[in-house]
């Protein structure tokens, strides 16, 4: 009987564990992780569907993984009760750019490059002169709710969990497993090891601002405003190779002053939390199979600023690799 260990209980580990366990209820699947929700990177994240800081991951893969995740969120939104919102977003530039249409434009609602009239309207709304921009309609999650939902789904399918810190892929804890699905995020840097994985530090604030119902990203200043069901995320920094998880006063000023420049009323919004997290940056998402010492490893890490944007589609590809492995195993057994 095949035994599967999923390493990591972030959004990617949970999605893979759910997809494998729900398709193969008789296969033993355990999630092994040092931290579970609400203490993973995704829990603190903005929760916004938007391909961001994922290096040179090929556009066709962003399209496939992102498109499938967008559709999955669509379904959850229709069900209700998952703390998901569907809202317009504006990606705006202070300097003139020749913006091309993203490969994933056809997979989202209402995608458009903004014309001069629309930009002039938005410049009035956000008190900054914007000269280029895009808009589309996207989903924003309150991340702990979606992570808890996936965790419950996995447990309801009789999936097992184990809190444990893995030292390497040769860790004795993995001896009993034939298939290891590696969703360690930044942890892959040490465990694989893979020095292409680097932290991209992000510091954000959460405020109460229920009148804000659009997402805005000022691509030239780096500030962004992402309202969700419970609060409004103000961002943000993206400092590569910075491992500092503490709040830095200078970054707080950058976030609060920068976002208040866009929407002056935010100055009076109640500040409820601040958080600094480390995105698992990599030149490109690593999603591939590797055979090592008779064991199948399926790597799925390095999602940068897009874990909540790509997770369901990436888990579909992981499942496909796993399906193929089972089919080949059956064929070989039949020959014996
Ligand atoms: C400020 C900020 C804002 C963000 N906003 C967005 C956004 O709006 N939209 C979006 O799509 N993405 C966003 N992201 C990025 C997103 O959070 C990540 O891409 C995503 O969380 C990665 O998920 P993961 O499951 O791969 O890794 P993680 O969530 O980091 O989970 C890794 C798992 O592996 C475990 N682990 C690691 N090392 C070990 C070990 N040695 N042994 C055992 N277990 C281990 C951890 O405990 C954890 O369970 C943001 C990130 C930050 C920091």
TrEMBL record:
Keyword Glycoprotein listed? The answer is: no
Question: Major place of localization?
Answer: other
User: What are the record keywords, sorted?
Assistant: FAD, Flavoprotein, Oxidoreductase
Instruction: Name the SUPFAM superfamilies on file.
Output: FAD-linked reductases, C-terminal domain, Nucleotide-binding domain
What is any one GO biological process for this UniProt entry? D-amino acid catabolic process
Q: Superkingdom of the source?
A: Eukaryota
InterPro entries in the record, alphabetically? DAO (IPR023209), FAD-dep_OxRdtase (IPR006076)
Localization terms from the record: Peroxisome matrix
So where does FAD get bound?
304-309
Cofactors that this protein relies on: FAD
**Any one GO molecular-function label of the UniProt entry:** FAD binding
Q: Which is an annotated Pfam family here? A: DAO
Q: What is the similarity comment for this entry? A: Belongs to the DAMOX/DASOX family.
Question: What name does UniProt use for this protein?
Answer: Jg1335 protein
Organism, by scientific name, is Pararge aegeria aegeria
